[in-house]
């Protein structure tokens, strides 16, 4: 009898000490886990990124209104804005932007396609490396501006030499970065793919090319920046439209305000395409966590 009482008291104590049972369908609130860097409070990054350009324009305006920077040397921000509004109202600036964008994107498409194709062939195969890499390393050291006379002889003075110059300038950064990305793929991942029995095509599609994608996007950013530099030089060659054409006309009449407008447009277009590449990086490299700064 005492044994039964002891057993029942132990079971009662065990039930009292046990945690309460959860309901059959518990509703647990979802909570988004953010990295520690995202939880910090302070000035928004957008405002901080704009601080530098705003400060630069403020110094420029101050130097202009005080006469330290004469208008003959460099027009003030107010004059530049009024000139930009006038050019936009007449339609000259939008037409010039469209023409320059068409040239830059056409040259980038041609040069980028050639550079990526050669990099993939050279990076994947030793025969391709032996046939291509030494030639590309040699040609990339030749200044692109020095090729303008030859391009004019070969293609004339129309649109072709301008696009060819941009294509040459943009092919090499993409080639170098894509080639380096392919050759820097982790060998452990390659061995794991072989262990899983992946074919060569599946290995290239699922392991090597995704591993080379970060370098490829870096090369694309470089190529976009260089395309604008090549465009500046290309549009000095008998251009009849484009931002460079406006700049050449302004130089003849010493219109520093129009020259600054053209330079600002070049900068803004470059910033816009760089922003697009950053968005591509966020979308295509979402699987690859990376350091974003302290």
From TrEMBL:
Pfam families: BPD_transp_1 (PF00528). PROSITE patterns: ABC_TM1. It is a multi-pass membrane protein. Its main location: membrane. Coiled coil: none annotated. The chain crosses the membrane at residues 50-71, 104-127, 139-157, 163-182, 258-280. It is found in: Cell membrane. It comes from the Bacteria. Keywords: Cell membrane, Membrane, Transmembrane, Transmembrane helix, Transport. Residues 97-277 form the ABC transmembrane type-1 domain. Residues 1-21 are annotated as: Disordered. Residues 1-11 have a biased composition (Polar residues). InterPro entries: MetI-like, MetI-like_sf. Belongs to the binding-protein-dependent transport system permease family. PANTHER family: ALIPHATIC SULFONATES TRANSPORT PERMEASE PROTEIN SSUC-RELATED (PTHR30151:SF38), ALKANE SULFONATE ABC TRANSPORTER-RELATED, MEMBRANE SUBUNIT (PTHR30151). This is ABC transporter permease subunit.
């Amino acid at each position: 009898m005492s044994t039964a009482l002891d057993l029942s008291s132990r079971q009662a104590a065990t039930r009292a000490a046990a945690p309460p049972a959860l309901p059959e369908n518990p509703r647990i609130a979802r909570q988004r886990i953010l990295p520690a860097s995202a939880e910090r409070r302070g000035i928004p990054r957008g405002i901080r990124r704009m601080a530098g350009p705003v400060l630069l324009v403020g110094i420029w305006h101050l130097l202009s209104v005080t006469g330290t920077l004469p208008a003959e040397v460099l027009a003030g921000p107010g004059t530049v804005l009024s000139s930009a509004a006038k050019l936009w109202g007449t339609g000259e600036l939008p037409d010039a932007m469209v023409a320059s964008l068409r040239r830059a994107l056409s040259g980038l498409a041609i040069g980028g396609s050639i550079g990526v194709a050669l990099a993939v062939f050279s990076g994947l195969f030793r025969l391709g490396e032996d046939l291509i890499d030494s030639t590309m390393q040699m040609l990339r050291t030749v200044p692109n501006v020095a090729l303008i006379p030859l391009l004019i002889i070969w293609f004339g003075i129309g649109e072709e030499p301008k696009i060819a110059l941009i294509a040459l300038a943009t092919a090499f950064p993409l080639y170098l970065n894509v080639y380096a990305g392919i050759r820097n793929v982790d060998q452990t991942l390659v061995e794991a793919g072989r262990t899983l029995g992946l074919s060569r095509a599946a290995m290239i599609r699922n392991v090597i090319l995704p591993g080379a994608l970060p370098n490829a996007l870096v090369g694309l950013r470089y190529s976009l920046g260089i395309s604008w530099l090549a465009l500046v030089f290309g549009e000095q060659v008998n251009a009849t439209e484009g931002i460079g054409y406006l700049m050449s006309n302004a130089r003849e009449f010493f219109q520093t305000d129009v020259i600054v407008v053209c330079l600002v447009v070049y900068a803004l277009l470059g910033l816009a395409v760089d922003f697009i590449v950053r968005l591509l990086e966020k979308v295509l490299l979402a699987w690859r966590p990376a350091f974003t700064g302290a």
